[in-house]
Amino acid sequence: MSTPLVIGSVAYDPKVVTIWEGFRGFLRERGIETDFVLYSNYERQVEDLLANRIDLAWNSPLAWVRADRLARARGLTVVPLFMRDSDRELRSAVVTRAGSGAETLSDLRGKRVGVGAVDSPQSTLIPLSYLRSQGLVPGEDFEVVRFDVGVGLHGDHVGGERDAVIALREGSVDAACVLDANLIVFSQEGTVPSGYLSVLGQTEPFDHCMMTTAPGADPEAVATLNDAFLAMSYADPTVRRLLDLEGLKQWLPGRTENYAALERAVDETGFYDAEGNITADDYRP
Amino acid sequence: MTIDLEDLALDEGGHILLERALAGLRPGEQLEVRGRSGGLSLMLGAWARSHGHRLLPAADRPMPAADRLSSDELSDGPSLVLEKGAAHDQRWSGAVRAGEPGGVLPRADRTWGLAARGALVEAGGPKLDVAWVERDHVWADIAPTLYARAAASQWDPNTIIDWTPPSGVPDDIEDAVVQIMTYLVENEQAALMIPARMLGTLHPHYREVMQLLASQVADEARHVEIFTRRALLTRGQMGRSGADGRESLQTLLNEPDFTLASFLLSVLGEGTFVDLLKFIHDFAPDRVTADVTRLAARDEARHVAFGVAHTAYIAHSDPAFLGRLRGAVERRHEALRDTAGLNQSVFDGLVLLAAGSWEPAAIRRGWEAVQGLQRRMDEGRRRRLAAIGFPDGEAAELSALHTKNFM
Ligand SMILES: [Fe+2]
Ligand SMILES: [Fe+2]
User: Fold this and answer.
1) Do domains A5-87+207-269 and A94-202 have the same CATH topology?
2) Residues B79 and B181 grouped into a single domain
3) Based on the number of CB atoms within 10 Å of its own CB, is B191 exposed (0-12), middle (13-18) or buried (19 or more)?
4) For residues A178 and A186, is the Cβ–Cβ distance under 8 A?
5) Would the CB atoms of A89 and B55 count as touching at under 8 Å?
6) B138 and B310 in contact (C-beta within 8 Å)?
7) pTM metric for this prediction
8) Which residues of A are less than 8 Å from B94 in CB distance?
């Protein structure tokens, strides 16, 4: 029996155990031995990936950016292997209360904008960079009000984003940054009624999580695993249960072009430096 | 194909119109979506992603989009194009029908789970943990009719019976009534638990049997209530429970086989019980006692009818099955060999009830009445055993082995 490939994943929710137990069983039936290791935050997972303590990491987009930077700085390579179909072309919106008087982004000048956790790509890093690109410098042209929930989970925890919208509802901020999907979620769960939010602006599409290989992972074993993931069919009821839990219909090949906006945001805020070191001073995963 | 959502947003039901429009398309085909609700393109993209569809990037769309504009500007109705994904078709590709609504199959599939008979069942999901999945083990053709009859014959103990405490019943006779009622309650509790246990292990594909058993459980629940209320009506105190009587009922609970338990309980036990209830009704010293026994006997007749029909259904298709039934009777008899059977105070109570007084001549009449009751019980058992398929001689032999505790 070959050495099992070890997959790292961040335990942002208890269902993560069910998901990876399920995939492990699925792969074992196909003769592929794996194991998984759970992390409480993405930073340690990325560091372990670079140290080859795990063979693969189920990375957030921000974790991919860091892994890639750390690898390049050391003359190594991490490979973007595969991703969820549901992680392609996400967009975030800058929203305000409908009828608040704000019509365009420039109306946010001098106002307070609620964002999610410090390390959330979708509700902090990317939308703040977007606002900057629209001529509004965070902290200068408007005040950033951060809602730090689940720091270290890179925005996987929706709590900070929800708190930003609650703050908008309660009037302590004038706008909030939310992922497109959460516009529907926050309305369905009753955080705000339908039609309550008005969209002032939206980011370009960006991609989300990425299965990333360690520099030292066995390429042959990785290729076999990659094929097995890409072959998972939503028509298979056993797999469907796992895919539903993980929130996808199909695994797709990895791609990195849609991480450009996040790379830019990381540079602008100095979240990581070019070598992948954590440089954000108020970030405690 | 184009759909116009007008000002309906995706977070207020708009997705239902999308689903309907997409249902007519094949995977890969496109749907143009128009609408002027705020944030439509954002919500549409998110909704599409989570449902395995794709909102085509602006560059691939036939007309320029105005996504980056505010919601008000979006109301001009930019062209948004969805490409249908395969997930919905894939989800239902392995689906099967859980039989046909109008009839039962010889074997029910545990993977149908709790799905309605005849429903289209998505593959996957938990297997139902039930033991009884074969028609011949649980079915009787009369089950649907009996269930309909049971549903039409439900009654409310509180209103159908006048619970005014009787006056003029002599103390000794009331003692006998209380003791008999106490005995009836423990029998009813056994008669409730046995079908309830069967219910939990029966595949719901055999829906009419499930419904019939459920109504039987509800019947027994009422019987427990009315006999308890009659027992407590004048004194507020129950009678005694003998160990041997409970031993006899325990052997019913110990029978794990659906058909054998149904046979022992309904064909032999409840069948005998019907005669007992009629006897108590005929000699009841007061109207409440007469009413509760009459009402219970009416329900019991249905329970017996299903037991006989179900047992006969199997025995007719498999004559060797009679041997197993015989074995069950013999095993139970063996298990009860060292018990006295009926609680003496219950037996004496029945005699006194029929006698109506302590006069020696009356007691003789009561004694003879109980002898007559036991003959009728025996005849009834033999008749039902014959209906199932036992030759007369064997029917008589088995009837004689039945518990002295009646149930
Ligand atoms: Fe009963
Ligand atoms: Fe009964």
Assistant:
1) yes
2) no
3) buried
4) yes
5) yes
6) yes
7) 0.83
8) 235, 237
